[in-house]
Write a structure and sequence with these properties.
Layout (H helix, E strand, L loop, with lengths): L3 H4 L11 E11 L45 E10 L2 E10 L11 E9 L5 H4 L3 H7 L6 E11 L22 E13 L2 E2 L5 H11 L7 E3 L8 H13 L4 E4 L14 E4 L10 E12 L8 E10 L4 E8 L5 H11 L3 E3 L11 E2 L8 E3 L7 E6 L9
């Protein structure tokens, strides 16, 4: 929730939202569907869509009764339009409901699937996009679930997470971006959400042509017993991979549902197998959504005695519950100053990349707390 003082910082209008739903009691008659001007070209709602109406129009109920008023012509009294901007909206079901106690007609309802994703930074996909089209020669429209990584062309193994940055990539001259595909949610006009994982993988295998070191299908193994899983976990750790995701082969794809199990080395043996780093809080960023207006992502770093400067190492925005975040607002605020991502207000003691400049900077890093951060992989790079 954004408070009034926070809302004043933004100049938003309805068209700035990723997903817009327009609904109301329009009470239009049977013939209106053939003379619709709401979403025709050059008209007021020309950028909106509507699901196909497959249910019949209804009569209005007589006052104080459960009987239809047959003196009136039947109509579709409600309507739901929608618009997607930088997100995916799919109508799952568009239907009419009986709510006699609350309405004088039969209202309609629409169940949507909504996925709003941030645009991927261009330099991370500029080499990949051309290969996706080649990997799916018969693909006209598709939604893929996957991950872009940097891959070593000689070993054919992915490099550590975080190496996709513009500067970090320069350290790996024998590497390039590769797209590892996990799943397919939509293919040539057909939603695959209600198909099982096994069926979706069969569709991928049938229509996808892997391209070496560019477009690859993620490895899939069937686990039948605990010993197989233990062996695979040990192999994954030995290979330096991030971890495993365990999925039900008969499961459908349900967005925002937690039906999968993620296994990483920092989850095992109470985290004793994970890498850790002791870092100082150097700044903070405003959160989004329900965390809007709160310091909820923190900039962490360490001191270099040779240069007498502090260097940024990581951003940390996970692992905090609401109570902890509320406590941190009180504890950190006295040593924080708001700079609103203004590069001219960066203190001389801090060495920081322009794209990491936070909303808040600590006043005195020596008075800032030290946090032990648990990570999957610690990677070190030189930019000299």
């Amino acid at each position: 929730m954004l408070f009034k003082s926070q809302c004043n910082q933004y100049q938003w209008n309805i068209n700035d939202h990723n997903g817009i739903f327009f609904f109301g009691d329009l009470n239009y008659r049977q013939t209106v569907t053939n003379q619709d001007e709401l979403i025709e070209k050059t008209n007021i709602l020309k950028t909106y869509s509507e699901s196909d109406i497959k249910f019949p129009p209804t009569y209005k109920f007589k006052a104080n009764s459960n009987s239809y008023d047959l003196s009136r012509r039947p109509s579709w009294t409600d309507r739901i339009l929608y618009r997607a901007k930088q997100c995916y909206i799919e109508s799952i079901n568009y239907w009419t409901t009986s709510m006699i106690q609350f309405s004088d007609h039969r209202p309609i309802a629409n169940l949507f699937l909504l996925r709003c994703l941030k645009p991927v930074i261009e330099h991370k996909i500029e080499q990949i996009s051309q290969y996706v089209l080649k990997a799916f020669p018969k693909g006209e429209s598709l939604i893929l679930d996957g991950e872009i990584l940097l891959i070593d062309r000689k070993t054919r193994k992915p490099l550590p997470f975080g190496t996709l940055g513009v500067h970090k990539k320069k350290e790996f001259t024998e590497a390039n971006e590769a797209f590892f595909i996990f799943d397919c949610l939509y293919y040539n006009g057909q939603s695959l959400l209600h198909k099982t994982l096994t069926e979706r993988r069969e569709i991928l295998t049938e229509h996808m042509k892997p391209i070496e070191n560019r477009i690859l299908l993620s490895e899939l193994k069937t686990i039948n017993k605990k010993s197989d899983l233990k062996h695979l976990i040990n192999f994954t750790i030995a290979e330096g991979l991030e971890g495993l995701v365990l999925k039900n082969p008969d499961g459908i794809y349900e967005p925002n549902k937690r039906h999968w199990l993620k296994v990483k080395k920092d989850y095992l043996m109470e985290g004793t197998m994970a890498d850790t780093a002791d870092l100082v809080v150097l700044g903070a960023y405003y959160g989004t959504g329900k965390k809007g207006g709160l310091m909820s992502v923190f900039l962490l770093g360490c001191y270099d005695s040779k240069t007498d400067q502090w260097y940024t190492v990581a951003k940390c925005g996970s692992g905090f519950d609401d109570a902890t975040l509320e406590k941190l607002q009180i504890e950190l605020k006295p040593n924080m100053t708001k700079i609103s991502k203004n590069p001219n207000q960066i203190p001389k003691w801090l060495n920081i990349s322009r794209d990491l400049i936070p909303d808040f900077i600590v006043i005195d890093p020596k008075k800032s707390p030290v946090w032990e951060i648990t990570v999957n992989i610690l990677s070190f790079f030189s930019f000299d």
